[in-house]
Specification:
The complex is a heterodimer. Chain A is α+β, with helices and mostly antiparallel strands. Chain A contains 14 helices and 22 strands. Classes of the chains: A alpha+beta, B alpha/beta.
Amino acid sequence: MNKTLSTQVLIIGGGATGAGLARDLALRGVRCILVEKRDINAGASGGNHGLLHSGARYIASDPAAARECRDEGALIKRLAPQCVEDTGGLFVAVEGDDERYIADFADRCRRCGIVAVSVDPKDALEMEPSLSTKTIAAFAVADASIDPFKLSLDNLAQAGGLGARQLLHHQVVGFDRRGGRIATVRLKDNRRGIEILVQADQIVNAGGAWAAEVAAMAGGRIKMVYSQGTLIICQTRIGERVINRLRMAADADILVPASTVSIFGTTSKRIDVPDNYRPTTAEIDAMIDDGRAVIPKLAHTRYIRAYAGVRPLVRSGDGTDDRAVSRGYSLLDHEADGLDNFISITGGKLTTYRLMAEKTADLVCRRLGNTSPCRTAKDPLPASSEARYTEPGLTPKMWFRRKDPSDLLLCECEMVPTSVFNEIVASLTTDGHRPGLLEMGQRSRVGKGPCQGSFCSLRITAHMYNEGMLEGREGVGELKAFLNERWRGMQPLLWGPAVSQAELQEALHCGLLGLDVSETA
Amino acid sequence: MVIGAGMAGMAAALFASRRGIPTVQAGLTGETLYASGLFDLYGVSHGSSRVLIDNPWQGLQMLRQDYPNHPFCRVSNAQIRSAMDLLTGFLEAAGYPYQGYPDKNARLITPVGTIKRTFRVPETMWTGVLALAAKAPCLIVDIRGLRGFSATQIVSTLKPSWPDLKAASIDLPWENRLGPKYAEQIARGLQAEDARRKLADAIRPQLGLAEYVGLPAILGIHDTETVRKDIVKMLGVSVFEIPTMPPAISGVRLKAAFDMHMPGLGVNAFYHHTVHTIHRRRDGRFVLEIGRTKPETTVMADRVLLATGRFLGKGLVAERRGICETLLDIPVCQPENRGCWHREAFLDPKGHAINLAGIEVDNRFRPVTATARPVYDNLYAAGSILAHQDWIRTKSGTGLAVATAYGAIEAVADGLDDNPKG
């Protein structure tokens, strides 16, 4: 007999939108369950720049999205300051860039109500010494840097406090439809392989790039295209502000500072299915060669990780340039598909996640007959404890302050002590599942330092066995999955000293430990 | 002149000194600290279908038939055997004996509970090979605070196929200080007999029916056999070491043995020195400036052997546009572009193409040009810098280093009567 859960609203997808929606509904007193097939922000919500847009990037291609970004950006800065570093941004053009676009920029911003202050190129160079000396125009805008993971965890933490449940690593495998209603949703627990049923009054598909797949299972239709964006993380922080290329939106345009590092991107590459995405060496080489025109340093800096995300774009026309497809969101009621308790929300941007959640919650509440107003545009987002260990420099500070010699460091590069590790494990275990190495890596700085997990992964698996978190041959599988995942981000950036580091890692994990052949006794 | 102080450079200097060839050696020995101390020869077959190798000599014969470019094709099994014996003989004399089967790979357990195949094993680890082969009743002990080594992990992982395995954790008996423990500190501590007694006392109550006790590699540095035999006597069972994650004590022992005993063989060794400039005179002789941070000494050499290693050893450098050899910029055989260097999965059993890149040599271990002619007739190369091999995936690191060093030194010796040509 399968376990059956019942709730008012089932949210499918644990990205920024799903998390924001869970909070919005919880604040209106609606009971909900959020399911996510992998981990929080596993899709585009995790694979992006971490840029809180002023809107200036979309003034030409999508003025409506530009205005949404303008309003939402300002709102998030005010209500969720713990997730934001208010760096400000610059739009910069260099010799050879399109002069017409430069000339029209201020005017276009004004028409969208976006503040863009002209900055003398000499002053711009003083503000951002890494800029090219061939800078010919610059404007200051209200861009900022945002931590998307913290944002989602904070949303979920408040939702959870108000009674919302989350089921991570649970995948929707089917819908049982009775007439125009979805009677039950079938979930598979991807770890234990068992099936769970959920009965919900309303079902919201916030599946991001996977929204079309989810909708299709329910008998709904969404026309989507998938655009891969690749980003690379520089080992150090280059620049104090977000630096945008002042031109019609193209590849390799944006450098965003994120605490101690900077993130450079991005690309726009059409892919057929949302699962087949990974950064390629060709994309990265092209990006560096392009971006160095504005920031020459990009040619020589050391990069620590590459990653990609898939933009879920909802298609209306037949254009071929994915950047021309609207960056606005799509809220679909699926009434034309004959469904009356299924809603899809996809497209959009990280910056507008709250608005997307609000509009979706409005529709859900209308259907439920709930008249409580939305509170997320007024109430601050409380900072949660779950999200704090992703911040570089925090655990070292705590560790030095506590001075407890028995609290051994598990990750030496980023100084993550055993106590923090155990605390995160405890917070994840209460939800009824055992966290693995990958999840721990996402919720802390583990594996993000110079060794990229080569050494700390071994210390951590040993620790996990000692604590009874792993048994049998599980550790070998955990190590392999963790190392292969870290590799995804390293492989396209392997040149220079990174190749030596990779060689050492291979000598250790394959040469000595034989994880490539995994011979058993 | 031998450039490099990794395993290939050390072996080459050793072989050259045994043949009475006046030798200068320069290089950094720090990397040896990362050595596992296990001497692999050929544990997993080369090529895309990875087969575990039982008899390395037969395996090498097959390899030579299937992959005529592989550096192992340029030396015979008899030469490799002599090379291995010379190396282990040197280490035995330095107080660090090795063990192994004549014609069979040994299998031993790793700290993550997998099995590793290797050819020569430090004596301190040897009874572990026997314990595993017999699946004998065995106790694995870890030390609280020594991170990355969990007896529970090893035992849980191996238990399905080795039921008589038990785990225990002990506190370091002579150490009241909290905090992390390091293998090297423990090993230095165990040089005192009293510490050994306390360690044995801490283990004894856990023994049960165990006939073997496996410990992390901590049993001394210079006098490993004294330490181990003493504990064996105290416990009345066999005791063996299990390798730990690098930098491990086994690397410290090797480095100590080389640092202390190589100069005694007549090798004019400049460790912690690197080659700053090298140029070849019109008469063919090489002039090298070597030093720690800046040039300190000038060396004139009739012949130069490059044993500078790969990327970690800095013999090769991988730029975004291609791979180069760092000292003389000699041609590097390599994949077409960076996109082909590595596979999408780190652990892909097929291995990464970049690892087959390197210096191509002729039968006398002289680097060759694209047209297969020696770059210089008095320049040789050996060790992991060579192309067409993947020492990590085929578990053949030390074997490849000593075999090619041996081959190269033989070639040098053969050519000693000829003067270099300009």
